[in-house]
Specification:
By secondary structure, the protein is an alpha/beta fold. It contains 13 helices and eight strands. It has two domains: 146 residues, 3-Layer(aba) Sandwich (Rossmann fold), CATH 3.40.50.1980; 115 residues, Rossmann fold.
Length: 317
């Protein structure tokens, strides 16, 4: 079997044969963003001064992403590479190394207070087995939830980091980057206020939600929801039959009103859980990726507005 590491190394070699960018693109700061949500934040701050390539596009799943030669070429040519961090892009460091990139690596989540993933919290809560037994089963402690962008206050931290990195790379654009960031932060402040108003209309007992994978922990902490999921923080992990059965029992016991599918995951599992638990499908939420531009979540702001509208419609009545 060909490993992901070997695939990435091969892609870097293939990328050498690709043509260089246009003169117009070379006049701008060449930047790469790892996935669509982060790419949108970079666009809003960078504006016309940045030529941006986003590796994992709309609807793409960064957890299982496989780079291609064009991706390796983009990374090799970039002056800045923006990543989420917190373990979200497990493939990125290997891609940068294989591509021989000299780009500055910018971790947009720097300064965010991380939260533990749901499965890590559950493991720490167990006391029936010693720590050594958990280690033997493949459990690892200390894993942070990487989905920090699902909190608007955290997104504002991302924007500050993006702004500062762009200024460092392109001092001549300082005034423009600062103005773009200030304007976008004002939009995020309004978005945050609107989301909180939407949440206030949902009765507190109905704010327990089932989604496909554990991507909304920061959203829950910021806005007063409890999210449960059959999958962990990565879509690569398949839940066991025992875990699914436990979740179905919890849905029935807690009288969870609705469960939600996600745009990046196979919906069959969550639909089976809905059928067996008696809960209804409340709609589709956008978790790790935006929709195409003509979809309901083509930007970060549109994604949040879509998600809170979907949650409110299913849970408020």
């Amino acid at each position: 079997m060909i490993s992901r590491r070997n695939v990435i190394t091969s892609l870097a070699l293939l990328a050498l044969a690709l043509p260089v960018g246009t003169a117009q693109a070379q006049d701008k700061i060449a930047a790469v963003a790892s996935f669509s949500i982060l790419g949108d934040l970079v666009k809003n701050v960078g504006g016309d001064r940045v030529a941006l390539t986003t590796l994992v596009g709309p609807g793409g799943d960064a957890h299982v992403f496989e780079p291609n030669p064009a991706d390796a070429k983009a990374v090799a040519d970039a002056k800045l590479v923006f990543v989420n961090g917190l373990g979200f892009e497990g493939w990125m460091n290997r891609l940068i190394e294989a591509a021989g990139s000299k780009a500055a690596l910018v971790t947009a989540s720097n300064g965010v207070t991380p939260i533990a993933s749901a499965e890590e919290e559950e493991e720490h809560a167990k006391d029936e087995k010693p720590a050594a037994a958990h280690a033997e089963e493949g459990h690892h402690h200390g894993a942070d939830d990487p989905h920090a962008f699902q909190s608007i206050p955290n997104a504002k931290i991302y924007v500050g980091n993006i702004r500062d990195a762009l200024i460092a790379a392109d001092p001549a654009g300082k005034a423009e980057y600062e103005a773009n960031a200030a304007a976008y932060l004002a939009k995020l402040d309004q978005l945050d206020a609107d989301v909180r108003a939407g949440v206030a209309a949902i009765p507190a007992p109905q704010r327990k939600i089932i989604t496909s994978h554990d991507a909304f922990g920061y959203f829950g902490n910021a806005y007063g929801f409890t999210f449960l999921a059959p999958q962990g923080i990565s879509t690569e992990a398949e839940p066991s039959a025992k875990e699914v059965a436990k979740l179905i029992r919890q849905i029935k016991a807690d009288k969870v009103k609705a469960i939600f599918v996600e745009n990046i995951t196979d919906q069959r599992m969550i639909r089976r859980i809905a059928a067996e638990s008696g809960a209804v499908i409340g709609g589709e939420l956008y978790s790790d990726a935006l929709s195409p531009p003509d979809g309901p979540a083509g930007t970060y702001i549109d994604m949040f507005r879509h998600n809170i509208k979907t949650l409110s419609a299913a849970l408020s009545s």
